[in-house]
Amino acid sequence: MKRIIFGSAIILTAFTACNNSASNNSATAGDTAVVNGAEQVAPAAASPVSGIITGYLHLKNALAADDAKGAATASNDILSAMKGIDMAGMEEQKHKVYMAVADDIKENAEHINANVDKIDHQREHFEMLSKDVYDLIKAFGSGQTLYKDFCPMAAEGKGAFWISEMKDIKNPYFGSQMQECGEVQEEIK
Ligand SMILES: [Cu+2]
Hints:
Helix content: 55-70%
Low-confidence stretches: 1-45
Order of helices and strands: HHHHHHEEE
Strand order of the largest sheet: 2-1-3
Distance between the termini: 41 Å
Oligomer: single chain
Mean pLDDT: 82
Bound molecules: copper (II) ion
Radius of gyration: 17 Å
Number of helices: 6
Largest sheet: 3 strands, antiparallel
Number of domains: 2
C-alpha cells in the first residue's frame, strides 16, 4: 500500500526536478493529492517553457551518447511539452519570443523524431534547435544554472553551440568520436 504512494512520489520528483520539492513531504493522501500538489507548485516556480528545456537537455544527452533512439524520444517530449504551453498567460515580451521560435522548434523536433536512423541528420536539426532554445532560455529563464558550450569543429568546421546543465563538456555533435571537444562560452543563471 505504501508502495503506491512512493511510486507517485518518484514520478512527482522527476516531473518537478527543477523546482523545490518541499511539497513531497506532505504528500500522504495518494495520487490525486500528489498530482494536485504538483499543479499548484509548478506554475509559480517553473518557467512555462521548462518542458521544452527538459526535453532539449535529454535530447542533448542522447546525442552525446550516440543514442539516436533516445534523441527521437526526447524530441517527442519537446513536441508534447509545446502542446501544453498556455500562451494566453504569457507576458507580451515573452510571448513575442515564443512566437518567433515556436514553429522552428516544432519543425526541428519533428525532423529529429523522424530520423531515428540518421543521427547526422538529427544533429543538423539539433544545431538549429539549440539556437531557438537559447533564445527561449534568455527570455524565460530556466530556474537552473545552464551552460552555453561551443565546439569550433561542429557543423562542418563552422562551429556550433549547445546548451548543457553540466559544466563538463560532453559533445552532442560528435558523441564518442570527440566527446570532449568544446568549451563553456557562457554561464546562464
Ligand atoms: Cu530534416
